């Protein structure tokens, strides 16, 4: 199935992704532009922080998660269009050399009351490192198109 319409989705469905390796140069480059804090930019400075070493920005982890989602198995009709998050956590820092993957689970599917051509899917997305440790957990609400009526 190329795209998932609202009618194709139900609570309990799970989807996966490929992998992405996080390297030191990209961690520092992202941080330099978007989150220029020492623990994202400098190995020596990062050792003296709560991270104990260089750690990717949570926002870099979120961006990597988005890329893995777009390239992954969960392919909602209309694209991955967010309507907001109920939860977003970074329980474990991402380190240079980590390989990330995404697992998502449909938690709820509901048709829109005001827009008959779409609905909302509540999705838990867990980004894991190569050790199976969660590095990001989010629960988000996505707008998903309904299957067009046959003409």
UniProtKB/TrEMBL annotation:
Superkingdom of origin organism: Bacteria
Domain MaoC-like: 19-123
Transmembrane stretches, start-end: none
InterPro entries from the UniProt entry: HotDog_dom_sf (IPR029069), MaoC-like_dom (IPR002539), MCH/BMMD (IPR052342)
Matching CDD domains: YdeM
Name of the molecule in the record: MaoC family dehydratase
Species in which this protein is naturally found: Noviherbaspirillum pedocola
């Amino acid at each position: 199935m190329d795209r998932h319409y609202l009618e194709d989705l139900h609570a309990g469905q799970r989807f996966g992704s490929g992998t992405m390796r996080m390297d030191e140069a990209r961690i520092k480059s992202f941080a330099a532009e978007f989150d220029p804090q020492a623990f994202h930019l400098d190995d020596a400075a990062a050792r003296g922080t709560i991270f104990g070493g260089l750690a990717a920005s949570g926002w870099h982890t979120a961006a990597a998660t988005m890329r893995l989602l777009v390239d992954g198995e969960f392919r909602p009709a209309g694209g991955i269009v967010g309507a907001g998050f109920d939860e977003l956590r970074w329980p474990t820092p991402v380190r240079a050399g980590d390989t990330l993957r995404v697992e998502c689970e449909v938690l709820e599917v509901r048709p829109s009351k005001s827009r008959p051509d779409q609905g909302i899917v509540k999705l838990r997305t867990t980004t894991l490192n190569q050790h199976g440790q969660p590095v990001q957990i989010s629960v988000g609400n996505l707008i998903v198109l309904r299957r067009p009526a046959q003409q």
